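Homework help board

Subject: predicted structure for assignment chain

Our instructor gave us this sequence and asked us to write out the predicted structure in token form, then describe one feature. I got the tokens but I'm not sure how to describe them. Can anyone check?
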Amino acid sequence: MKNKYFGLAVLAVASAPVALACDCCSVFSACNLQSENETGLIAGIAEQYTHFGTLQDDGHKISGDGEYLDSLVSQVFAGYNFNSRFSAQLNVPIIHRAYGSHTMNADTSGIGDISLIGNFRIYQQVEQDWSINWSVLGGAKLPTGDSSKLNLPDGVLPDGIGGHDLALGSGSVDGIVGSSISARWKRIFLTAQAQYAIRTQGDFGHRYANDWTWSGGPGAYLWLGQKSTLALQVVTSGESKGFDKFGGDTDPDSAATAVYLGPQLDYTWGSQLSAQLGADLPVSIENTGVQVVPDYRIRAALNWKF
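My token output:
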């Protein structure tokens, strides 16, 4: 039973939400899903749908022309647990974005920038009534996605939507570092994770700003069976990023800090299957310039350990 407790608490940490401004660059990490002293392959898919339908100017809602952006990011991933401490994972994002206004509609789809991530478990203690786990991750994002939308001329997109919002890739090699921690006492658990993306200049002289993403919160097990578990967690998540640069000049419509709050359900079956479903509502969004910002996000993930 103690491995079931531990595994589900870690699942909540591993499923980092997708970022506000550059979700094609974000990482879904299942590296922590290894059970104690187990090795083997993990594969799965993570989905996130985000609806951007509110136009803001420097953090204040303004009227527009029905500008919207619907983003669906599917991350197919495969990883391997080499031992109880170290694992590696490859993420391949498949992106679809529909966007427009009252006067135009368009969409773009394709493979995004892939990422290769390593995860190292620094500390782990698992007992019958309590457990604690601390891990760090690091890796790189590679320029496999189409970056052509970064080079769109001015005036072809609706207000609040830029080429950096639509590009499937950045054309840059970026670094990713992060850390996660989880703790459990009987049926109650607490998780927290943070991830920092270190950007370099990509195609067309564009450089996405470095950004922080984070998530975490308290949860409790609703069901603990011999073969399955079900937990409910209240998750606070967010992102903070600075100004992008284009040809060395600052993009005034690119910095943002967003905070979300929402419920999350986690399910495990045996030691092989893990599933997750969550929803996020923004409680605070501060942005610079004119940007279309999120109204809600829906997340789901399915992981299988072979």
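Reply (TA_rk): Your tokens look well-formed. For the description, you could write something like this. Residues 55 and 292 are 4 Å apart (CA to CA). That's the kind of observation they're looking for.
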